[in-house]
Each structure stands twice: as C-alpha cells, then as structure tokens.
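Fold sample X.
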Amino acid sequence: MGDTFRALVIEDHDGKQKAVFKDLTVADLPDEDVLVEISYSTLNYKDGLAVSGKGIARRLPMVGGVDLAGTVLESTSSDFKPGDKVIVNGYGLSELHWGGYSQKQKLKSEWPIKLPDAFTMQEAMAIGTAGYTSMLCVLALEKAGVTPDKGDILVTGAAGGVGSVAIALLSKLGYRVIASSGREETHDYLKKLGAAEVISREETMGKGRPFDKERWAGAIDCVGSSILAAVIAQINYGGAVAACGLAGGNDLPTSVLPFILRGVSLLGVDSVMAPREKREEAWARLAKDLDKSLFEDMIRVEPMSNLPTLAGDILKGQVKGRVVIDVNA
C-alpha cells in the first residue's frame, strides 16, 4: 500500500453529505490505540444511508463502513498485539467514528474482538453486523423461553442480511421458520436457507387489527412500523418478538392488548453498543450454529470502488443476502 492508502470519505459539499474516494496517510486517522490493516468490510442498510449522503454521519469528515475485519499492525493496548486478526461491528462506526471503508484504520481497544478460529476474515464479514445481530435476536428469543417445540417462528424482511442469516440459524437450531418477503424472486433462495414456507407482506399483515389471531410462537422483525405491529398482534400467548430493524419505518402503530392479554414480550435488540461479553457470546454461537456451506449462496464480494452504486441498490431493496467489500480491490 505504500505510505498512502484508499478510503471512502463522507464530506460536506455545499451543505450536503457526499462520499468521495481519497488517499490518506496514518497521520490522517483518529488518535486511537489500535492500528489495523483492513482486509474486508460489508454493506449494511446503514452503510447505504451513509454512502448516499442521507445524513447519518454525525461528524464530518467521516469514513463509512459499520463493519471491518483486518490484522493488527500496532497496538498500545495489552489486549492486542501485531498480527492479531480482529473484527469490529458497530460501536458507532460510520456515524460517530471512522469505519471500515478504508485500507487502514485506528480503533479504540474496546471495540475489536479476536476473529474466531472457525471463520476466515471474508466469512466473518459475510456474517458481519447483520449476522451478528441475527444471533443476538436468536439469543434474545431463547432467553425469553421461545424454543422450537413452541411453534412457528416468523422472520420479516427475510431476504435482507439480518433475515437471511436468522433463517439459516433458526433452521439449524430446529425451529420451523416462516419467511416474510415482499420479493417473490427470493422465495427459492429463502427456502434453500431453511425456510419451511415463504409468505408475502400482505399475508404477514393478516387482518391488520391490533389484536389478531395467534399464529407465531416468536418472531425476528427487521422491518418495524405496521409490519411489526401486525406481528405483535399475532404472537401466541407468552411468545416474544425480537425487534432489530426499521426498514419499513420507525413508528409502531400497536396497542397494549397483545402485551396485557397474551403476555407477549417485545425484545429490543441493539447490536451497536452491545458489551464485549455479549459480542463474544454471539460470535461463539455463530461459530457453533451457522452452517458455513450456506455462504456461497448468501454472499458476493465486491470491490470498494463499487460502493456508491451498491449503496443505492440496498436502499432500493435490491440487494439479496450479504455483500462483502474487498477494500483492497
């Protein structure tokens, strides 16, 4: 790479955020304690917003990329040494702190965890924040007592990154998974991942009442808004919904009825600021419970130069599965 390296930097251009490729040096990076040479990042919905200049970057200039995987070059922290392979998910990367769309980055020592032996860096980024969030959702449902014998589990926004991995995980763990997707062309793909059935958004909505017929023992919701409200209304007595996304909106037009008449639990799942112990638990379970043979159907690797186009695609709902970004291509 020489003394300079490439990064996708979000800057202010006449009052609007715009992402541009720039050559940087280590001196340009934040003053943090772990210097990492990055191999791969990913494309998430948040990344699409950031790269498209939708205003999620709260400090400028900002380097995008919620996820990264790479090798430690230097560290002033005893937690890491040169040569360690590490991954970072969340912690405000791409919003408050410089992220993974760069060939090098400096990070706070609290952010990385060591790459599990079960995964290559490319595989870890195929999982990325989306897969790690999926595992947090599964853990939340398990801890709420939603076990495979209780009944069907619904996954909304099923063809996206979180939904894809959630289906694969739940299926491997013995749950009968129903996938909800608005894209008919993804149905075969979702069944290959392990969905027993695929239903449309219209079928997911049911009758759209605040208190509907019981259908699901639990659910992982990536959509929010009226879809989440409809799902809550259809959860079986004592069931739970793990909510982790807002692709359909950040409102929630529901009522208290499912909560006070059926004992339904709404479990908020945050992957951004989850403590290291929870992250390590999630990644250990991913190493154990995720079928890596599914990666070939779930991922595609794209060069960092394609990010501006890919960002538009994910915001339009045109990205299936996981996109891994090779920052050196």
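Fold sample Y, listed below.
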Amino acid sequence: MEKHNVDVFEDSDENLKSVDLEDAPLLCGYGGTHTGVISSWYDFAVLLIVFPVCHWGNNGHKGRWIGLGGIVMAVGSLVCALPHWMAAPYIPSENVHNESDFGQCTIRDEKQCTPASMSSWLNPYFWMFILGQTLHGFGSTPLFSIGTTFIDENVSQKASPVYLAIHAVLTTLGPVVGLFVGGFLLNLHDDFDRPDRYEMNSSDPRWVGAWWVGFLISSLAALIIAFPILAFARELPEAKRHRAKDVNQCHAINADLHKKSSKDTKKLPEIIWVGGMLKMIAICHLIALIFITGLLMHCPKRNFVGVNMPYGNDLHPEDHQPPSIKSPCNSQCHCSSEWNPICDRKTGRIFYSACYAGCTDKTENSNGASWSSCSCISNTTSSLLSSSLLDAVKDDSDSEDVHSGYCSLDCGYNTYILMITIFITTVSSFAAGIPSQQIMLRVVPFDQRTLALGINWTFLRLLGFIPGGILFGVVIDTTCLQWGKSCGKSTSCLVYDPSKLSWTITALAIVCKLLSILATIIGYMTYRPSDLDKGASVASSDSHGALHLVVNDDRNDQPIQSIHM
C-alpha cells in the first residue's frame, strides 16, 4: 500500500510542478522554451543516474532505495519553493513607479529603462528550479526502476500484471490529483502569506497564483510516505513462497500446444503471445491517434487591438505594416510596456492596456475597475459600427462597458469535446503500458529485469521526454502573437493564436503517436523467440485447464516445475 501511495504522490508531484511552473515564469520573465528546459531537466537527471541506481539497487535493499529517493524528492520540492521567499513581494511594475498612476493615459516623462543585470538563462531562480528538478529526477528513479521489480518479485507471476495495473492506475490518478490541487492553489494570491502584499483580483491578467504551495505539499507528502517505505524488509514474507512456485516466464506458447490441448487453446486470450501483446499495443496507440484530433477543438480567437487586428483608423493592414499597439490616438500617452488589458464590451475588442486605449479616467466599483474617456475606443468604435449604431456608443467612454481584464468568451461545446477526446486518448495510451511492461519483464532473464527497465527508461528519456518537453515549448512559442517586452527584450508570451496553437500541437502529437505505432509494428515483424527450439515445456494449470508454456529458465540446476496460476 505504501508503494502505491508513493505512485500517487510521484505523479501528483509531477503535475503540481507542471501547473506551478505555469505561473512561476511570469515572475521571472521566462518563455515557453525556458519552461520546457526546466520540465525536461527532470528527465535529464533521471538519465544521469538510472544505470547506477539499477546496478546497485537491484542487489541492495530496494525498500531503502525507494525511501531514500522519497527524501531526495522532498528536498527537491523544497528547493523549488525557495524562490518565493528569496524574491521581493510581487507588485505590478506600473504601481512601483507611482501609486497614483494606474496605467491610464497621462502626459508624463518617459520611464527610464533599467536593463537586467544578467541573461534570463543565468537568473539564479532559473538555476534553483534546475537544481530542484535534478533532485526530483534523482529521487524518483528508484521508484520507477527498482520499484517495478520490487513489486514483481514479491507477488506471484499471475498476480504481477494485476499489481502493475494498479500501479499504472495510481500513476494516472496522480496527475488528476496534481492538476486539481494545482488549479485550486493558483486561485490563491502568490503573496497571501505576506502582510505587505499588493491586493488584486484573480481575474486581473497580471494575477500570479500561489505556485510555491504545491511544492511545499509535495515535500511534506514525500517525507510522510518515505519513512514507512524505509522500514520495509529486504523482501516481503510471501516472496520466497512465490519464487518456489514461479518460473521465469517465456516468450511464446509451445508449438505443440495446438495439438495437445486445442480445446483449451480457444479459451486463452490471444495476448498470451508476445505477438498478441504487440498487436494490442498497436491498437491502443491507433485509438489514441484517432482521438488526438480532438486537440483541434479550441475557443474562438480573441480580438486584440494592435496585436491581431488594427486600430479603427487603419482598417486595411494588408496595405500597411502589421498591426502595432502604438497608434496616433495614444501617441501622447507615453505608455509603458506593462501588460494590463482592458475590454470594450460593446465590440468585444481587447486593448493592450488602458493607456494604449487612450483612457484617462478610472472608476472602481463592486464589479472591478472601469475606464472612461478613451480616445482609441471611440475611434475604433466609429470605424467598426454603422452610423445607425454610432449615436448609441458616442457616450461609450462614460459607461461601464470598458473594464479591466479580458472580454468574456463562449467556447460552446468545444471544451467538452476536448475533455472527452483527451480522456480517451490518455486511457488508450496508458492501456498500452501494461502489456509493454509485461513483455519487457518476461523476455529477459530474471536477474536482469531491473537493468532492462533502466535501459527502457533511458530510451524513453533520450527519445521522448527530454527532447519532447523542449520541442513542445519551442512549438508553443512559435504561435505567440504578442511578447512581453522589458528594455526592448522579449520576456514571456502574452497572447497566443489559438488556431495555430491547436494545429501545431495536434500535428506534433500525431507525429509522435505515428512513431510509436511504427516502432510497435517493427517489433511485431522482427520478434523471433530465441528459445522455442531449445525451450522446455512447462505444465501449468488454471481454471481453464492445462497450459504448456515455453520458458527460458535461468536458474541453474533446478528442475522445471509445474505451476498453478
């Protein structure tokens, strides 16, 4: 039970990290590439240590290895949370300069830009996340390498797939827990623990949630779970009894099975054969491939004036330069680059900030902040609306139709379709995991299973997780419509193109899934059991009758045994 608690914690921790890292870059000016590197560094750390852990841990006390790994993970989570206390309280930059300046259009001197003293890649907070992810990788390696064989060698071979399936289910439950907890925590203010925090509403686009609390929860949970695991014996009480009955299972069913027990054969599932398992894996990936297209579902594109649509006085951007947030209507405002969008409810247009909308007056009410006397909104409205409607919006700047934040967006059924297709895709992808794991555990000698898992994890990192995180981060960055600016340098992305983002992510996911299917087909076509000619026939009986399996028994001087599954 403790082992499965570790499974839930590990995957909850991974998704807490992924959710937490969504808000942390906003404080440090990171883009998708930075976040991708931080995320992939976990897998790089696993790659560095997986073989030493598999080599020494396989012959050592597996419970202690897993428990110590949990402690290392706890330290890693604590390291990732430290930047919260090391950094100053989060205050939007427009409020740092002048408490009476709310980002509206005013005639003021240009603010002097103070360049960052170092590159974002040398930022100490970035390297603290790298250190934390390194410790996460080191600590989780025993769980997914030694932990799998620890389960397999302490239960019967018949029960092993069941326990490993429970292991897979709980590692799937972990991300769900992590996402829900992480999403809830991001609704808390980043500095809720500080009395001098800057008060703002969670609907404010500049809002930063309590990203660091998830790391603290992960750290505490790891410590609580690690100590019971450390108290485990080298092997569980039932392990010797299972080893006395089990044999090292084989690659395929004996060639004479059809002759000796054709009636019993009809009752056996096809996946007893490795080839059948490979077929099941391919089918699962194919189902996932079909439903991956659900990622094409997205919400309508928002209209950002100066970003993906022009101001009202420039209705033909194809004849001019691309849209710009600067316009004659805000040329006297001396606006800063602070991202603080406002919405014109009448037209559904969003402006970069109240300053770039030419607004001069701000009103606070129960519904938040509203703006008036907005020169750019009057120009945009008069250009976009017919003359019959113009009189109705002439006094728009005196109404509460211009408010801080984004305009409401109706995604229709797209959200539900996306959730259903992602669920089916995830289930299908994980369904391929158990037969893959069983093949790997059964086609290698009994004492080399941990090494086989280590090699498997190495290829997963080298070919999947490490380049995948970075690649997806770079691809996401290519769909950015507007980057934040600081002293003329790009920081994090402010606005994405939802259509382009959905198409590029879907295309990349389809390519990855096609590669998985191709690898499975190659495995099916090239698989040749090496021991069919010299293998021994092992009589085994279950509720359906006798079963003769060809085994590759690597235990010297032991007679082949009849097992009951």
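Sample Y note: The first strand starts at residue 303 and ends at 305.
Also: The chain has 19 helices and eleven strands.
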